Amino acid sequence: MKKLLGFATVAVVLGIAGATDAGAVCGAPLIFGQATPNCGGGYCYVVSPASTAGATGGSFWALGFGNPAVDSPTAGGDDSDGFPVQDWCRPSGPGCYLVGDWGGDERVDGCIGGKVAAGKTAEIMVVGLSDGNAGQGFFAVAAVGRQPTGSDFDYANIGQNLTLAPIPTPNITNTVRTAPNVAITVNSPAITAGFFGDASVTQGDLVKSYRIYKQVLARGAAAPSTRNRSAWTAAGAAVAVGQPFSYTETSCATNSDIWLATAVVFDSGFETSFVSGNSRPVQCGPTIAEPSDKGFKVIERKGGSTRTPSSN
Length: 312
Known about the structure:
Blueprint: H1 10-17, E1 31-33, E2 46-47, E3 57-62, E4 89-92, E5 95-101, E6 124-132, E7 137-145, E8 153-154, E9 162-163, E10 165-166, E11 171-178, E12 181-187, E13 195-197, H2 203-206, E14 207-218, E15 233-234, E16 239-240, E17 245-249, E18 256-266, E19 282-284, E20 296-301, E21 304-309
Parallel strand pairs: 1-8, 2-9, 7-13
Antiparallel strand pairs: 1-5, 3-6, 4-5, 6-7, 7-10, 11-12, 11-21, 12-17, 14-15, 14-16, 14-18, 18-19, 20-21
C-alpha cells in the first residue's frame, strides 16, 4: 500500500495537529521517518506479530539525551515526551510507518539538533517500540544517524521492515524458600533480535538492561493474561544485560503463586510498554507444595529448600 502522506508535507500536517510552543524548541524542521522505498522497491514499515497497528507503545529520543519522565519541565530531555505513538507511526500497509518532525509539534520535548552522544560524530535518533497480545510482548529498537540531505533521520536506510521481536521470558534458575518468603534468581535474557540500526550505532548503544516484573496471585489462580506493563509491579531495579537478577518476595502472607515477566530497558532509561510472556509460577506462602515445574529438582536445606535445574 502506498503511503498517503508525502514527507514534503510533514511539517504542514503536524503543524495543523498542534502548534509549536516552548516544548518543541527546534528552530527549523528536523524530519524523521521511513522516507524512501528501500524495502524491495517498496516502502518500509513497522510490523508487529501482535496486531495490525505496528506498535501501540513507543517513544523516540536523541541518543544519550532522552528522559522518560513525561510533562516534567525540570526533568529536561530531548524526546517524544507525551507524543502518542499513533501520531508518529501512522497506520498503513502491514502495520505503521514512521513520520514526524522534531520541530513541528508542541508535544515533543527539546530538540535533537546539536545533541551528539559521547563517542559519536553526529546526532543519532532512537525509536523504541512495543506491542503485545494476551500471551506475549514484542519490541523493536532502531536508530539512525542524521543525514546531510533529504529526510534528516531516514529509517528506510536500514533497508528492512522494523519487525518487532518477542521479549524474552524470564529464565528462573534458582529458588530458595523460607516460608512464607522465597528468593528467586533469574538469568539474563539473551536479546538476539529486535535491534535495527545503520552504521552509526551498535546494539550495545541501545539495549542497556532489563527489568523483571511480577504479579503475585492466589495459589492456583489463572495465570496473568495481560502484557501491559502498567498491570505489573517491578520486582526490583533494572539490571545490565548479561547480569543475573535476584530478589526475595516477602508479600506472601497467604499461599500464593508468583509470576514473572521481562521488560527491555533502552538507552536513556526508556522501557518497553509491554512485558514478555509469563514465567513458570513460583510458590510462596506459609505452605509450599511439592513443585510441579518440570526440569527442576529440590535440594532440602536447613531453614528452607533450594530448587536448581535438573541434569535430566
